[in-house]
Amino acid sequence: MNKDLLTLLQPEAARIDDTMGHEFEAIGNSLLSEVIHYALFNGGKRIRPLLTVLCASLCAIEKIPEGFAAEEDLEAPEDLYRLAAVFEYLHGASLLHDDVIDHAKTRRGKPAANSVFGVTPVILAGDFLHARAMTLAGEIGGVRIQAAIGGAITDMIEAEFLQMQTVGEKRLSEENYFAVLRGKTASLIGTACEVGGLFGKGGDEKQCAALRLYGDALGLAFQVVDDLLDYLGDEKKTGKGVGNDFLEGKMTLPLIHAVNNAQGEDRTFLLDLLDQEKDKRAARFEEVRMMIEKYRGFSYAREMAETLVETAVEALDIFQESRTRQVLTGLSQYVLNRQK
Amino acid sequence: MNKDLLTLLQPEAARIDDTMGHEFEAIGNSLLSEVIHYALFNGGKRIRPLLTVLCASLCAIEKIPEGFAAEEDLEAPEDLYRLAAVFEYLHGASLLHDDVIDHAKTRRGKPAANSVFGVTPVILAGDFLHARAMTLAGEIGGVRIQAAIGGAITDMIEAEFLQMQTVGEKRLSEENYFAVLRGKTASLIGTACEVGGLFGKGGDEKQCAALRLYGDALGLAFQVVDDLLDYLGDEKKTGKGVGNDFLEGKMTLPLIHAVNNAQGEDRTFLLDLLDQEKDKRAARFEEVRMMIEKYRGFSYAREMAETLVETAVEALDIFQESRTRQVLTGLSQYVLNRQK
Description:
homodimer, mainly alpha, Farnesyl Diphosphate Synthase, 2 strands, globular
């Protein structure tokens, strides 16, 4: 199903790529244009814009009078794709600035933009994408959609500050972990879904709220699974090393659960190790993994992801059965079962 | 007149400061809030928001039926101040990112934000200001105003790229110099004026275009005068060292004019010196200043600034005489005659 699902969505993703290509044709400066193309066309799956388009379709289907046009005949307008692509620009802008902040060397297996072009063009290209994205959001979506998107950006930034201020906090609470996830990942995905509902007055208030809930839960589940893969993933499939989060001292749900539930010397072992240098932590990663297993950190995180996906799927209950709804349900299963 | 003018505008500037203070009261994260306050409340004269408010008043005056309310009784709505302050947020965001890019140590005599808080919070706070500014522009101003502001931001960034790509170009053309100025300085100031006209449908198309022209010309004049002060200013008044532009190898109008007009060994002297190390250039700064004088680089730039200010003043001719128009005319004289 998963592979089929992505194949099924391939033409939509290609149309989004097409739209994105046209949007930046008019950039006068060749270097700016190069940085932006490097940042945007990097083999991304276009999940956020796809969600916007699918959620808009879901609301459009609700309006088909019985016996009239079939779901397959609904033609989404070009403007919807242009609006949907805004989420890719914002995502791209935020990755550009993140890579500068983290001094990243690579991104998706390619050299990171900052190591190709240097810091200055990358900061500025991020700002440019940001400004274009907000302008397009207003021009195509109107003030309400633009305000929703503006809110998602400020959520992301506030969450980055929260994360920055709790770096090195070994006793991080689950609440704090989820607060960061909500701001950094879930808010933009939830907004991508909500905006699909808001587009062209497609959905009513209840439908838009349901789509937002679906996207928020999907985004949280996505990140929890990501955090699980960092401990349990197959490097050949994920394409990234296992154990990075622990080596960097990043507290994610499996470890948080283990630290909060471990007793006596097990707890001391974990907390002491988190104080050690990176190479010391690396040497004992296998033991840590076993310790998290012992305190059910992985199954706890797994169950959390499952619950979130259930929440996402249930949020769609208010929509009638349709192929589009099946695709959205399928996407949430994909998020849960992905191995990369 | 100049001092009187700024004193006259002091209550307006204070009201803008007040509005700015309220706008960011709701930031949840204390560090983010601190960075933003540090960046915004630094003794700036609030010229851009003042221009928005004044231009909006100018259009409102046009609508007073003869014999009715006096100009002094016009009360600008709170929303106009909130919209006007957007230009201060954008200006602030751009300074934050510029200081990171330039590894700046100081800004307006205080430690630069990046040297107080570090690079990460400053990049993120710039993004936050940016997002809030665009959202406010849409919410208060509507789609047209928001698009104008979005265009000003992308102009600024394209100009930064143009400047980046011509760094070290000793034979920089005047055309290139003005293209950078237009994007980096004039576009945002022109937009601040235009938005005053667009606010609440205050001005018609012709009036908005006139205000834009006024602001563009004022912005260009401002920067040309800035470049003159860098050679001829009194350090005690400007508060910054003289000759910085030449030491950094930055080609500004007086020097561009001199290089383009110098002959024989004078020309060779200038071009060779621009290839030398910074300390070599510093040692011969006095000679350079005399050489620019010899080829009338300063008077050329001065006349250019005067012409630009005339253009700005003439653009206001379509408006009836009023105190507000006098203030705007006075501001352009202030830009021309300022010594800091």
